[in-house]
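tool=predict chain=A
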Amino acid sequence: MEPQAALNEIAFLLEYDLAPRFKVQAFRRAASAIEGMTDAQLRERIADGRLARTKGIGDRTFQVITQAVEGGVPDYLVALRDRRPELPDSPLAEELRGDLHTHTEWSDGTVPIAAMADAATALGREYLAITDHSPHLTVANGLSVERLQQQLSDIEEWNQTTDDAAVTLLKGIEVDILEDGSLDQTREMLGRLDVVTASVHSKLRADAPTMTARMLGAVRDPATNVLGHCTGRLVRGSRGTRPQSEFDAEKVFAACAANDVAVEINSRPERQDPPDALIAMALDAGCLFSIDSDAHAPGHLAFVALGAARAEAAGVPADRVVTTWPLPRLRDWLASRR
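tool=predict ok
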């Protein structure tokens, strides 16, 4: 097996398993450390001890490279493949064309824009929104106006310099909904974006009237396209669990339907947000939906199958899911509130 491919696949599978970031990065660093080396060069460096002393190569990654160079599938990769849970077999997942909520190393993701775009291309995505965090969320390295401007230039360059087979990147943001219901970015910058996913990240235990007013302010803002992970709950994972926020869901979903804002079905296994009962309520309210990965690494992009299975179980029709729409129709919808 090609050693760099083995290291990258291990990183991908660890990401899918929500492994700690440092563990994933160890394999990505090792893949970078051996980039461009032939098998013959690797064998020579293994034999004389240079590879073991190479910066970015640890005991586990050295073992993986050695076994791959010898022509086999590394034991560690075999174990990860064996324990990876099967994704749900969902016809709706097959209809998904894109993803409106992803992160890169510009905020709290783990890889550059190009790596996320390459992974989305490999998965057959038609479009991918890059939606890094906004300035208020300092813990996630949220983007200032200046940094967001720089990122938009990188996205434009990707779209201009890649071939037609590559995914189209959409310029976006996961903008924090501030306590007064306003969006955490300037009006000028919001107006330059293709996609605005608005989410609450702070004061999640506020009382229901306060949270309802806050969310309604964001939903009614003409810049907002998607209401992200609306309850903020966590049901599993290394961050522990967190109960869902309290708000008047009927009012919020009615506002989403009236303002043509999609309710996100966040596919991350530790979120599963909204809960099933709220998906049903949003469906009855006439809402559109956006099935998104909330990916912070390439291995997370496949999570959309989990969200699609939940939407399908709730009876959400494919045409009510904006991420099943072809790009021209999606662009028309995104631009309709600007």
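The longest helix spans residues 145-161. The chain has a mean pLDDT of 95.
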